[in-house]
Amino acid sequence: MQVNKHIQVTMDKIQHFPVLCWKTSKKVGAEDPRRIIHSLKVGLSLTLVSLLYLIEPLFKRLGSNATWAVMTVVVVLEFTAGATLCKGLNRGLGTLLAGSLAFFIEGVANRSGRVFRACFIGAAVFLIGAAATYMRFFPKIKKNYDYGVVIFLLTFNLITVSSYRVDNVLKIAHDRLYTIAIGCGVCLLMSLLIFPNWSGEELHNSTVLKLEGLAKSIEGCVNEYFFDTEIDENKESCSGDQIYKGYKAVLDSKSIDESLALQASWEPRHSSHCYRIPWQQYVKLGGVLRHFGYTVVALHGCLQTEIQTPRSVRILFKDPCTRVAREVSKALIELANSIRNRRHCSPEILSDHLHEALQDLNKAIKSQPRLFLGSNRNKASNMLALAAAEAGQKRCRSGGSLSSVKTDSSALMEWKTKRASEQSREAERKVLRPQLSKIAITSLEFSEALPFAAFASLLVETVAKLDNVIDEVEELGRIACFKEFINGDDHEEQHITVKCEKPNINVSQNQLSSVGGAE
Known about the structure:
With 519 residues, the protein is mainly α.
């Protein structure tokens, strides 16, 4: 019966496999249509280099070495032009240097006897292999030329060791170099001239999307924190997923940003925006955004804490918190638009509305001192709850300390009964321990307002860290030669000479100290 069930499940999976493959393929293509174009480019490149095998005159000239062109296309052709240039130039340079050095070693070895020739080749392989491998640990070489050093080692050893047994190894190396050059040429042609995908543009667009994602996450956190309790659970889960996706892309971007910046440094200038685009500044901006994202993660965590501030208390601070979140999101969207359009940000990116919202939040917190400082109204009941919990723990400890003298049979029965009771008490204690902890926490006089104080403090912290993000975006615009901000309402399009001078809002001192004091 069980076997038939497994067979039925397997048959169902086989039947649904084509449909699943189609849905997955459609989804992947819809997410990024460039993937379809890249797949077609790889197929066309493989077809072109296969002609070295299919056309008779070319095959007679190159022979089986034509397979190296196919291998080169498979290995070198990447999704972006920068990655293809990096791997292609590394492979070509590594092959050229290895071939030149191998020819030199072969020329020196041929002038000696066969025994000395074997010893000389072995020593050369050892020294070159050890030196090249050690050079791979150099930071600059490991970052830019690691793949080229690997190809250098592979090609050098193949040519040098083969020359001891094969007489026409120089001709084989010559043909192999030709086929690798043909493969690299096809890859560069496809990457640079036919629907190119630039790593620099990918890094530029991903930075814009990260700023927009953080803006949506902050506004979503505040909206969900003050949401109506009658909202459907499905809508709440969808909102939580959108918040998570907004900052997840920022937190996971470190390795992607560094890789794209490295690949972009290999790309030729393909636009007139700047003579030399500072890709490392994008990486630095990504680091600042990750620190900003950590605060958003903590803000999102306030929505999922075990102890929540009652809605009747939260509603008192809904308006100023919503306004602060809206202004922070608006500033992040403005920064995203400035990077997208390659222009400096607006001089009014931090408007007076944000300052007014912070002041209103500060006044709202100060107007409710009893929520944060506590009262003596529930002091007796809190002390009774703690005393009852402590008495229960003492009874558990004193119950296992009693002993008496029994006969052997009665002692054995008592031991079994005692062991069973201890196991049951241990199980109850594991369940009771978190309950006692929760009772102790909820009995604090200001526990109802404490979660909101943490939420408000983190919200103000996002405003404080917003200054760092603005500074990095301005630095990026200065180095990358962004155009000056143009007032959209001014039809004469007069250039503004002031570059994003931010109003002085002492958020990190005044506002944080007020919320911190409330806690």
